[in-house]
Design a protein that fits this description.
Distance between the termini of chain B: 31 Å
Order of helices and strands of chain A: HEHEEEHEEEHEE
Helix content of chain A: 25-40%
Number of helices of chain B: 2
Shape of chain A: elongated
Oligomer: heterotetramer
Number of domains of chain B: 1
Strand content of chain A: 35-45%
Largest sheet of chain A: 5 strands, antiparallel
Radius of gyration of chain A: 16 Å
Chain lengths: ~140, ~80, ~140, ~80
C-alpha cells in the first residue's frame, strides 16, 4: 500500500512536474494539488546567481517518507509524490515538487501545504545561496 | 567514531567525516566536545545530532558502530 | 500589466499543465501552486462514465478574469493562469487547472484555493454527469 | 427579447434561445414570467439572470437590445 501511494525522490537532474502529476493521478480522485518551489532572482534584497543543494541522502529520504505517511493518514490522501533536487539549480529552476491527490480539493490543499512546510522544517537538505558577490549556507547565520 | 558533517558544519569542521576517539558517548557529551573543539558551532546552537538517520535527543547513547551525523539548521525546499 | 499577469482560457481540447506552469513561472517567484481538477470514477456512490461541460463562454471568461484580478490584488500574486475544459471529458481527464505564482508559498496556496473556490461559485459553466445509467446536470437537483 | 438558456434551463425550456415578446422589463418580472410558463424552473430557485454578461439583481431593468441569459446553478471546476 505505502509503496504504491508514496513516491519519494532526491535527484541530481531537473525535476519533472509531469512525473509527479502522473504518479498521483488516479480515478478515485477529483483534486490534485502541486506545489513547485522555484529559484528566485531576488532574496531579501540580494541578487541570487544560482543555488546549490546538499543532502544527507538516506536520512532525507526517510524524513520525506515520514512526512508522506503522515500526510496520507492525516488528510486521507490517495497518493503523494515528493521530489527534491540536489546539486546546482539555476534561476527559475525547480528545487522541489510536492504533488498530492485526494477525493476532494480541500484535503489536497491542506496536505500539500503540510508536506512542504514539514519538509522545510525537518528534512536534512541544505541550500547554499550564490549571490553576485559571495555565497553562504541558508539558515546558517547566527 | 565517525561523524558525518553537512552544510555549514562541514565548512566549520573542515571535513565531511570527522573521526573522534570515542567508543560510547551521549549526544550531550558529543555536542560538548564538538562545541569546545569548534566554538563556531555555538553560533548554530539549534544543530541536531542524528543516530542511524534519526534525530536524537541529548540523552541518547551513541555507540561506535552507529551512523552519526551533525545536522545544522536545514534549508531545503 | 493585467494582460501579462493573467491567462484565462476555456478550451475544447485537453488542458496542458505545462502551459499553465510556463505562464506563471518567473524569476520573482519562489512558490508556484497548481490545482488540477480531474474526473473521478465514483461520485456519491455512483459510477461515472464521463463528464460534459457547457459554458456561457464570454461571461465565463469575464467571471474568471474578475477572480484572477481579485486573487492578484488580495494575495499579491505575480501571475495566475486559469484554464477550463468544455465538451466531453473522460475519466482521469483534466476539467480545470489553476496555477499561481507568488514570492512566498503561503500566498500561493491561499490564492489558488480562493480561485478554484470562487470559480465553482460564480463562473457560468455547467457539468453534466454521465453515469453508467443515465445523465444529469450537476447542482441542478431541487 | 432573446434569452440565452444553459444547462438544466435549456432542457426545461427546450431551446437555447427563448424569444419573449417584451421590450422593457425588470429581472423580477422576467423571472415571474419564466416561472409561470416553465414551473419546473421553480425547482432551481437560485437561478440567476445575467444582463450583458453580468449577474443582475431583481430590480435591474432589461432592454430589448441587452444580452440576457438564464443562469441555472453553476457546476464548473
Amino acid at each position: 500500500m505505502a509503496a504504491k501511494s508514496i513516491d519519494i525522490q532526491i535527484l541530481q537532474e531537473p525535476l519533472s512536474i509531469n512525473n509527479c502529476y502522473n504518479f498521483v493521478l488516479n480515478e478515485k480522485c477529483g483534486g490534485i494539488d502541486l506545489f513547485v518551489g522555484t529559484v528566485r532572482r531576488w532574496n531579501k534584497g540580494k541578487e541570487v546567481s544560482h543555488l546549490f543543494f546538499e543532502s544527507y541522502l538516506p536520512m532525507a529520504r526517510r524524513e520525506m517518507n515520514k512526512i508522506a505517511v503522515q500526510a496520507i493518514d492525516q488528510f486521507g490522501l490517495e497518493k503523494i509524490s515528493m521530489h527534491h533536487r540536489i546539486g546546482k539549480v539555476e534561476l527559475e529552476g525547480v528545487a522541489v515538487i510536492i504533488a498530492v491527490s485526494s477525493k476532494h480539493r480541500k484535503a489536497a490543499f491542506e496536505a500539500c501545504k503540510f508536506a512542504i512546510d514539514s519538509l522545510k522544517l525537518s528534512v536534512p537538505i541544505w541550500k547554499k545561496e550564490y549571490l553576485t558577490n559571495g555565497s553562504h549556507w541558508v539558515n546558517s547565520r547566527p | 567514531m565517525k561523524i558525518l558533517c553537512f552544510g555549514i558544519a562541514k565548512d566549520i569542521i573542515g571535513t565531511s567525516e570527522l573521526i573522534l576517539d570515542e567508543h560510547q558517548i551521549t549526544v550531550a557529551q558529543l555536542k560538548n566536545q564538538l562545541n569546545e573543539k569548534y566554538p563556531k558551532l555555538l553560533e548554530y546552537k539549534s544543530y541536531m545530532i542524528a543516530i542511524n538517520q534519526e534525530y536524537a535527543n541529548d540523552e541518547s547513547l551513541i555507540s561506535i558502530n552507529d551512523e552519526i551525523a551533525l545536522i545544522p539548521p536545514v534549508s531545503g525546499g
